[in-house]
Amino acid sequence: MKQYEYMAKQTLAAYGIPIPPGRVVDTPEEARWAVADIGPAALKAQVLVGGRGKAGGIRFAATPNEAEEVARAMLGMNLKGYTVERLWVEGKLAIERELYLAVTTDRSAKKPLVLASTRGGMEIEEVDDRDIVRRHVDPRIGLLPYFGREMARELGLQQPLAGEFAQILTTLYKIYREKDAELVEINPLAVVGGHLVAADARLNIDDSALFRHPDLPRVDEGSELERKVHAIGLAYVELDGDIAIMANGAGMAMATLDAIQYFGGRPANFLDAGGGAAVEPTAQALGVLVEMRPKVIFINIFGGITRCDDVAQAILTVKERQGIPVPMVVRLVGTNEAEGVRLLEAAGISAYSDMAAAAKAAVALAGEGR
């Protein structure tokens, strides 16, 4: 279960990790009062999605009047499929430097993993491996004080930052253990006035351990789009990329995500249309992908129980019902393949038979749209 940023920061603060002064607001008037108390501030949309800044989910206000105007524009806005219902108004920081720090679970090694970098402020996936310090923690021993000092040395930090970094890391690991977290992340861990402050935070709790934490607020992780697809009865997870994906079967959907990433693309979602979804549910699911306004839609079908002609008919239904205003790549193989291809070609839509070629084409089209 993911926690909103303000929830994660409240947990960090409760454990003694410095955070900027902030307040949760639900209305423009509350934003005005918050900035009147805090001073110049950042207004941050509280949605469970990455890349908020680039999408307009983080804005600044120097005065109470400006804060009210900015909040009025942000509240109710659609941010990557999520409706912004709440803002975190946080004192604006004079950031001198940005670091990255996280504790997560390495399932392959079956150990906690600490990640740290001097390239904070970026998604960790975008940081060069050479700029990331990775160290496993022996769960039988825990994270001892020397661990943080050694990592600070590897990052090239000097006192007093090195000491503060080691202390924050020790505390972050304590949160990870005591809250049964899958991920505790500070990005950026900002240097402000020569000291470290958690400028942003993420806290993801292991769902299997929620019964041990009745005090933790429960969060509805589903965006509007996720709720729509789930209501249809299909499996859907929203991601941070720009290539929308629909495939039949969880294994095929995962393979499709892997293929897109292999060719350098970024999946926008995981959508399993199931092993035998009828025309209308498939059309409804595809309609949701259209609503996402991705760079490209990639439909990858290996028909067994799923019939290729049903998938083709669903595509044509959406095309006629609401239009498909973005490029679409279709791969159809299997049951009633010839009929499905014929239906699409009659509507001017080409279909691939080779998955790799189709994935490569989808990535190329997304690149043209960037």
**Helix/strand order, N-terminal first:** HEHEEHEEEEEEHHEEEHEEHEHEHEHEH
- Major sheet: 6 strands, antiparallel
CATH class of the largest domain: Alpha Beta
In total, the number of domains comes to: 3
> Level of helix content?
25-40%
The CATH homologous superfamily of the largest domain is named Succinyl-CoA synthetase domains
Q: Could you give the distance between the termini?
A: 32 Å
CATH structural fold name of the largest domain? Rossmann fold
Assigned CATH architecture of the largest domain? 3-Layer(aba) Sandwich
Distinct helical segment count: 11
Shape: globular
Provide key terms for this protein.
single chain; D-amino Acid Aminotransferase, Chain A, domain 1; Rossmann fold; 3 domains; 4-stranded antiparallel β-sheet; 11 helices; 26% strand
